[in-house]
Structures are given as C-alpha cells and as structure tokens.
Write a structure and sequence with these properties.
The chain is an alpha/beta fold. Helices cover 37% and strands 12% of the residues. α4 links the parallel β3 and β4.
Length: 339
Amino acid sequence: MSDYLTIEREKLNLPKSLYLEITNRCNLRCRGCIQYRGMWEPERNMSLQEIVMITDQVPELERAVLHGIGEPLLNKELPAIIRHLKDRNVIVNFNSNGVLLNEEWQQILIETGLDELHISLDAASADGYTAVRGIDKFDLIISNLTSFSESLKRKQVSNPRLSLWFLGSRGNMSELPAFVRLAAKVGVKEVYLQRLVYFLDGERYGLARPDETLNSTDPAALRLIRESQAIADRLGLRFSASGLREPVLSIQGEPTSLSPWKRCSRPFSLMYVTANGNVLPCCISPFSTTDYDYIVLGNVFESSLADVWFGDKYQLFRKQHQTTLPPKCCRGCGGHWSL
C-alpha cells in the first residue's frame, strides 16, 4: 500500500463501495456501541432523495452498505432505497439487531432484492444477550430469524443471505460455541466473530475497554475459537471474522513496528457517509478514537463527493495512514482489530 503515498489525483478513482448510514437512530443501547457513551452527531434519517443525490455521483458504484451507528429498519424509506440501488445493479447489505425483523419486514427485504442481512446478536442465551444489550429481546430475535429462514426456504430464494455476528469480549466468549450451534438451529449458514474496538486515546465506556478485548495471549479465547471452528465444520457452516480473516488470526495482535494498518485499503477504496452527511474513513473509526473532528474528512451535503474524496483533508489522511504514526483511529484498529 505504500505506493499510495505518491498517488496523484487523476490516478485515484472514486470509490466503488459506499457505506451509507441511512439512520443513526437505534432502538437499543448496547454496551459495546458508541451510543452507550453518547452520540457524536444529532439523530437523523437519511432520505431516498439524499441517497440518490450521493450515489448518482458514483457511476461505477458496485456495493452499498446501508448501516453505520444505528438500526436501518427504523428508516421507513429503506425499501425504496434498496429498490433504487438494486435497479442500478448495486450489491446491497446492512447490519440489523433483528428486533424489528417481523414477517412484514421479512417479506419486504425479500421483495426488494436485498443481497445480504447481517444480524448482530453477540450471545447464545437470553441472559447473555441481556448482559450485553441491556434488554430482554433474545427470544423475539430468535423467533424472527427462525421465521425468516423458513420463509426463504419455503419461497426457494437465497437472498437476502443471512449471517449471525458475535462481538467477542472476555465476558461473552464462553457462549461462542453455543452461538455457532444456534446459527445452525435457526437455519443460518454463516457466523462471524467481530473483535471489540475501544478508544485508545480517551475515556472508556461499557464493554469498550482494554480489559475486555480479546488477544492472542488468552488461551481460553483461543480454545473457544478452535472449538467453535470445529463445530462449524461439523455442521457445514462458514465461520469467519470481520475483515474476512480466520477467527484465530483476527485476535492475534501484531507489533506496532510492522505497521499493520498500512495494508488496509479502506482509505483508498470506500467512503463512509454518516446520516448527517459527514464523511469518515471507515465505519470503525468513530469507535476507536475520541478525536471525532479529525476523522470527519468532509460533508457530502456541503460539497460534491468528488471534492471530498480528492480533497486536501482526505489526501492528508491517506498519507499519514501510510506512515509509522498513522491517525489515531487506525492505530486503534490496525494493531488491535482484524483488518
């Protein structure tokens, strides 16, 4: 990636992947989420008109991820947004907590042509779920997922492709093997382990603390991951980690001197737009630094997407990203999370 240091404006193409935070409103306050601490921006939904305005500026758009800090099912324009993007042959997916995923929403997501739906669950039991999410909705979500899987099978359709996501910490890792079994039970074929991200440069909140994060020196975590992998193999499930790394590798930290963040392509390949139009380098950045003003690289409601993407602030971020002292958000991700 170091070659990007010398990239000139005309050689850096517009991103073909956009993360569009269609809402930053949420119906939960999970202990591992930035909303548990407090919002960076005012609550807001993004409209279909705004989505069209943004995406029309990217003729070669290939992928749109409709989430950020919030629950996408709270945006009533979500069906129209998905339909618009699918009419452009864009791959569309988003994360959901699954609480609102009733039969009506299930039917809508099938009919709109949504490609993937990621369900963030983080537990294999009602007690474990309440400990992480602070609310007793586990049985409702499992019922929703079971119903959705059965509906997909009955209709003989493969989309949206369902996956379960587990934000791993020292407090909930004991539930990971049962989580894999649960996925098979409800008819979901993919399970992902996501590493806990926390501020390296400021106050801690909820579960987002260094003493809760996983690392390769924890023999119990490694044993549980390997056990879960064996269960997934036996049940015919895909078990992976965020960043498409093997789960064991995702918790293995690398020496800072190796600058692992330099291998991350996100500052050069995608753009994350918040519900208020602010452009951030990626969806992990607001979770890994308290210096929010630094990671705001522009605003698509005030400037064209191209002016932001090729602007001085974005270019400076890319250059710093390729040094041994990268932006704070990259230090928190590249050395302690999976790329």
